[in-house]
Specification:
- By secondary structure, the protein is of the alpha+beta class.
- A hairpin with a 4-residue loop joins β1 and β2.
- It is built from five helices and five strands.
Length: about 140
């Protein structure tokens, strides 16, 4: 099982609909597969030019460490040196704040991740979860 283009488009459409319903700021949504490869991306009008980099970093750290970016955030508070080391080794693809949510199948296998940036981290995460759940996949924010 994988995140198909059809499922990726459903994730994006649902996440952005949730954001509009909640009156969030303009978002960027990045979806990557389990290998960290870009599957889909969309940036709403008026979202800043850095939103891709941040949303991609949230998704990337989730897949790279096998935990949602909320869990990475919590780990950073307890083990800052570890998260700093990962960020240094990886380069620019580590954004350890909520908004990077693992996409899993019903057996718990990681299929990829969704990273969202543009509003508060909690709101970004909420939109990602809504998008993932609309596909029947399991959302794991950490």
């Amino acid at each position: 099982m994988s995140i198909t283009q059809r499922k990726a488009r459903t994730i994006i459409k649902t996440a952005l609909a949730k954001a509009r319903e909640a009156e969030m700021k303009p978002l960027a949504v990045t979806i990557i597969d389990a290998g960290g490869h870009l599957k889909a991306f969309e940036r709403e009008d008026d979202a800043s030019n850095w939103r891709f980099v941040v949303s991609h970093g949230k998704a990337s750290v989730a897949v790279g460490l096998g935990m949602g970016s909320r869990a990475v955030f919590n780990r950073a508070e307890q083990q800052a040196y570890f998260v700093n080391a990962v960020a240094t080794l990886e380069g620019t693809s580590v954004v350890p704040v909520p908004g990077g949510v693992l996409v899993k199948d019903k057996k718990g296998v990681i299929l990829g991740a969704v990273g969202i940036s543009g509003d508060t981290s909690d709101n970004d995460e909420m939109a990602a979860i809504a998008g993932i759940e609309a596909t029947g996949f399991v959302a794991d924010p950490g």
